[in-house]
Each structure stands twice: as C-alpha cells, then as structure tokens.
Write a structure and sequence with these properties.
Blueprint (H helix, E strand, L loop, with lengths): L14 E6 L2 E9 L5 E7 L8 E6 L5 E6 L5 E6 L5 E5 L7 E6 L5 E6 L5 E6 L7 E4 L2 E10 L5 E7 L5 E6 L7 E4 L7 E6 L5 E6 L5 E6 L7 E3 L4 E10 L5 E7 L4 E6 L7 E2 L4 E10 L5 E7 L5 E6 L6 E5 L6 E7 L5 E6 L5 E8 L75
Antiparallel strand pairs: 1-2, 2-3, 3-30, 4-5, 5-6, 6-7, 8-9, 9-10, 10-11, 12-13, 13-14, 14-15, 16-17, 17-18, 18-19, 20-21, 21-22, 22-23, 24-25, 25-26, 26-27, 28-29, 29-30
C-alpha cells in the first residue's frame, strides 16, 4: 500500500540581530558569488522560543505556517510582511491547527482540531477573523492545502466511513465540499494546490495502487488526468502557477525521487537535478517559473533547501544555519521571496524567510551557504514539521504532545515515513 504524505504533496534560504518585544528575528546575509545576496530572517513562534515552520507566502510577503504557543500547543501562525508572529487560533474547542496557504487577498487556509478530537479543514478570511469550519466529505477528518485569488480552496477529506481519502474542492461562494475523485478505478487522492484558472494538482493512485502526479483541469471539468513520471512508479504534484507549469516529485527509472517540473502546455516531465545527491523534491513555483524545494547533497548525507531559477534551472543551495542539520524551502512568491523551515543546533525547527537583495541569477556553481551565529534553525520533520497525513489521512502531530487520538486518526505521524525521498526532514549538515 502506498502512503501519501501531505508535506511531500504537499516543503538555506554576516550577522545582525534585532529584538522586537518578545520575539527576535535574526538576519543572515547569504553570499552568492557575483550574484548579490539574500537576507535570511528566522521567524519566531507565538510562544517566543518554541518551534515554528513557514509553509506559504503570498506576493505581499505575508507568511503563514504554524508555531508553538507558550503552552506548547501548535497553532496556525501569520507573520505579516515577515514580521511578528500572530496566533490565528483554532476552531472552537480545538488545541491544534496549521496554516498551509494564503491568497493574494489574505485568505488563509489549513486545518484545526475540534472539541470532539476530529481535524477539519479551516479558513481564516483575514488575520483577525475566527477560523471557519469547511467540513468534510462525510468522514471524520479533512485538510485544506491551497487557495487561489478567487477564494476556491482545495485539499482532501475522508469519505463517509473513513475508509478512503479523496481530493476535495471547496468552491468560493458554494456551501460545502465537492469530491474531485481519483484516477480511473483509483482508491485515494489528495489535492495540493490550485491556480487562478481553477486548475488543481495533487496525487491519486490507480487501480493497481500506483501513485501518480495528477491534474484536475478546470477546462476539463476537473476530471483526473495522470502526469507522466520520470520513469519510475511514483510521482506527485505539489504546486502549479497561472501559466499551468506544475512541480512536484517523481521517481526515476533507478527508483530515486527527484524534483520534477511538468511545464505547460505539454507537461512532459523534467528532472530538475540535485545538489550532488540522488534525491530531491519541488514544493512551490512562482509566476516567473522559479521553483523551490529541497535536494540531497553529495552522498545523500544532507538535505538542503534548494532554488531552481527559471533561467538556467541550476539547483542552487540555500544552505543551513550554523550547527543546523537540515533545511527545506516550501514556497516562493513573485518577488523571489522564499519561505521554509529547518533544524537548528539544538534540534528545534524554525520558520525561515529568504529575501533576495538583488534580482540576479545564482552563479553556475549553485552554492550560497548560510553562515550565521543566530541561535535559531529549522525544523526537523522527525519533530513533526508540516503535517503529512498517511494513507489513513492523519494530519501531522507535533511531537510536543498534542492531544490527538491516533485511533481516531486526527493527526497522523509527522515523522518522515518515506525516508530520504519525502519532504519530511532528513538530517543535513552545514553548508
């Protein structure tokens, strides 16, 4: 049986430190030889010193993800303009939430636990609004993963009886979710992203339980269509831009998972390459076609956040923090601002925000290591990074003892269940 992970679907980036009230931002200059610099900000948690992770960024530079409160509850978090963390809260009676995406208009989507221990897709219409329960397809749990400028939301939900998980769309202005279905005779599916046209991407299995990157095109009535792999028997899509370019990961003929681009209009798969290792994955793409994600370094010893610019497509190492073990980029906006997370020297996860100082292209060497004396780092998936549901549809438990009931399938294990080939955190060394 295949296990599908939302975080996979579902994704571094000299030193000055500024203190703002109860939180700190550490700015790190990332030298790109002959190519300008990035500034790297570590985004704090609402609890001040606990773990955090950035998952999405819009073109205004607003960032969403999750962070721990002072009481060690994981809450959806908004860093407006990459600044102070704001607690978005949970559905009534809940103790756990995560924000996965936000639109250009500021609509935020994700999921939250509820009083009965279930976990439902949730929507915040603004930073100051209470979350709205988007409901399910009849099952216990659901998760929202993407939202477009029109307010259409996509994700996945259990069907009645909780026997299977299906890709789901919550159209703007329409009450309730709609089932996007699976590939022919498939058993499960998940949606990860939606563009302005309403095209949806994600993953579905087929009659043989093989998983395929899947496109539900609006022009095709959202019928599920599989995308070609790199020669292996597994692929999944995680992002799509308004041009129709799709990114994700695919197994090649050797069985290694690789960051993959399916450019429009033909969507023939392109292997984006690695930082010297055998594996990688793409998690986001902007309007210009810049792609972000992660890649294995030489010997597959480490996983680093990676940028593949639209021009040249050379994998560029965004690095890790001093003493950090891993990093991963999860999103990129039209200005080239990148978000993600990574593990620091004390094995805590920190939300990360890279800002390009100059609109330039990384050199062919593809190296740009982060060097900093900052204390924050990035979050290890072994600590429950970006909630990936397993085939049972669970949604990432944060290892600090969230009050979920696994028997009820509220929060699936965030530990990287597919090893080096998932978006789940694999250890990585300094650059």
């Amino acid at each position: 049986m295949n296990r599908i992970h939302f975080a996979k679907l579902l994704s571094d980036r000299g030193v000055g430190q500024k203190m703002y009230g109860a939180f700190s931002i550490v700015f790190v200059s990332v030298a790109l030889a002959a190519a300008g610099t990035f500034s790297l900000a570590e985004l704090a948690s609402v609890g001040g010193s606990s773990s955090s992770a950035a998952i999405g960024v819009n073109d205004k530079g607003d960032v969403v993800g999750w962070s721990y409160t002072a009481g060690f509850e994981q809450h959806s978090t908004l860093w407006a303009g990459g600044g102070a963390p704001g607690d978005l809260g949970t559905l009534a009676g809940g103790h756990l939430s995560n924000a996965a995406s936000l639109s250009s208009t500021g609509v935020i989507v994700g999921a939250s636990s509820r009083t009965d221990g279930s976990y439902h897709a949730a929507l915040w219409s603004s930073a100051s609004s209470a979350p709205v329960d988007l409901g399910t397809l009849g099952g216990t749990n659901s998760q929202a993963a993407g939202v477009n400028a029109s307010g259409d939301v996509v994700g996945f939900s259990y069907l009645t009886g909780d026997g299977t998980l299906h890709a789901t769309i919550w159209p703007s202005g329409t009450p309730g979710p709609a089932d996007l279905g699976t590939l022919l005779n498939g058993h499960f599916s998940q949606a990860a992203a939606i563009n302005t046209a309403g095209d949806v991407v994600g993953v579905s299995d087929d009659a043989s339980w093989a998983s395929h990157a899947t496109l539900w095109a609006a022009a095709g009535g959202h019928a599920a269509v599989s995308l070609q792999s790199l020669g292996g028997n597994y692929s999944q899509a995680t992002g799509i831009n308004d041009k129709g370019d799709i990114v994700g990961m695919s197994a090649n003929a050797a069985g290694s998972f690789r960051a993959t681009l399916w450019p429009a209009p033909g969507h023939a798969p392109v292997d984006l390459g690695t930082l010297g290792g055998t594996f990688g994955g793409a998690t986001g793409i902007n309007a210009a076609g810049d792609v972000v994600g992660y890649s294995g370094t030489a010997g597959d010893l480490n996983r680093h956040a990676t940028l593949w610019r639209a021009v040249g497509r050379v994998p560029f190492d965004l690095g890790v923090l001093p003493g950090g073990s891993s990093s991963q980029a999860t999103g990129v906006n039209a200005s080239g601002q990148i978000v993600g997370f990574g593990v620091n020297s004390t094995f805590d996860t920190r939300a990360m925000f890279w800002k390009p100082a100059l609109a330039t292209t990384p050199p062919p060497s593809g190296t740009g290591c982060v060097r900093s004396s900052g204390e924050h780092g990035e979050r290890d998936r072994s600590k429950g990074e970006r909630g990936e549901p397993d085939r049972k549809g669970q949604q990432g438990e944060r290892s600090k003892g969230e009050k979920d009931n696994r028997s009820k399938g509220e929060q699936g294990n965030r530990n990287g269940q597919q090893g080096n080939h998932q978006n789940s955190g694999q250890e990585e060394g300094d650059c």
